[in-house]
TrEMBL record:
Statement: the UniProt record of this protein carries the keyword Transport: no
Regions that span the bilayer: 109-131, 143-166, 186-210, 217-241, 261-280
Signal sequence residues: none
Record key words, sorted: Membrane, Transmembrane, Transmembrane helix
Protein name: BioY-domain-containing protein
GO molecular function, a single term: biotin transmembrane transporter activity
UniProt KW Ribosomal protein keyword: no
InterPro entries named among the record's database cross-references: BioY
Length: 295
């Protein structure tokens, strides 16, 4: 590999099967220089230079002042890229729209409001199973919306959005299933499920940001399953207290909904990773790394 002139450095991002290449020039290309250029070209994904780590063939982080030539032995050599915090759809949209006036405030508020309304609308898509003659727990699209938003938004918004939804419902907005509202919903059989929503959303968001579980189909499905387990665990526990029987809680509040929730998991699993196939570190026109200019 030439030390002088322009050549290309191949980088393999985490959760990607395709490398991206960066044209570079100069006799000494450092890890820090390449890391800054990756951020420059992919700000909406990397978010900050410090969030990116470059790894060698042994999987160990490369020091910033190290020269890349000592790690790139031939033209097939690659440098691995890992992010401490993975991007979410919310953070991606916020970065893309940051040129809008007051985008720092307006874009998050808009995403927040749309997400709350999405959950509220999903709650109205409800019905009772034929064998639930006592109309104990309705089947709704709420759980899908909660877990879906959490996966798209990250842990903070994954908690804040459902929590706002609950506060709005308590305040009188007809956001709960059947257009109900007020404190009465928290004294009934569904209270446990409602309480679980911010926790489940936060969990899904944490797995997205810190583990990148939304980038692949299998891990997205695992995220949805774990979120559902949280909802069932808290919801069925409360229901068991109200009914005075754990077996009745399982029969009325868990088992009948497993097939429907399985369908919701399949839908979310099919939707979430697909977007990243088009957005996650696709090859772009890269700016040449000029070492002298970066000094």
């Amino acid at each position: 590999m030439e030390l002088l002139g322009t050549r290309r450095i191949r980088v393999l991002p985490q959760f990607s099967s395709k490398t991206i290449s960066f044209p570079v020039s100069g006799p000494k290309i450092t890890v820090e220089t390449l890391r800054r250029r990756i951020f420059h070209n992919y700000q909406e994904l990397v978010e900050s230079p410090e969030n990116a780590s470059l790894l060698g063939c042994d999987g160990q982080p490369l020091p910033d002042d190290a020269e890349l030539d000592q790690y790139l032995t031939d033209e097939t050599s690659v440098v691995r890229l890992e992010l401490k915090r993975q991007p979410t759809y919310f953070s991606y949209v916020s970065r893309v729209l940051d040129h809008i006036p007051f985008a720092k405030y307006t874009v998050p508020v808009l995403l927040w409001a749309v997400s709350v309304l999405f959950i509220a609308a999903s709650a109205q898509m409800s019905f009772y199973l034929p064998w639930d003659t006592d109309k104990t727990v309705p089947v709704t699209m709420q759980t899908f919306a909660i877990l879906f938003i959490g996966t798209l938004a990250g842990p903070v918004w994954g908690f804040v959005v459902p929590f706002t939804y609950l506060l709005a419902g308590i305040a009188g907005a007809p956001f709960f299933a059947g257009q109900r509202s007020g404190w009465a919903s928290f004294s009934g059989a569904t209270c446990g499920y409602l309480i679980s929503y911010p926790i489940a959303g936060c969990l899904c968001g944490a797995l997205t940001v810190f583990r990148g579980f939304d980038k692949r189909f299998i891990t997205t499905a695992a995220t949805m399953v774990l979120g559902n387990i949280v909802i069932y665990l808290i919801g069925a526990t409360w229901l068991g207290v109200k009914l005075g029987s754990a077996s009745r809680a399982m029969t009325a509040g868990v088992l009948p909904f497993l097939p429907g929730d399985a369908v919701k998991i399949v839908i979310a699993t099919a939707l979430v990773p697909v977007g990243w196939k088009f957005l996650y570190f696709r090859e772009r026109q890269n700016v040449e790394v000029d070492v002298e200019a970066d000094k």
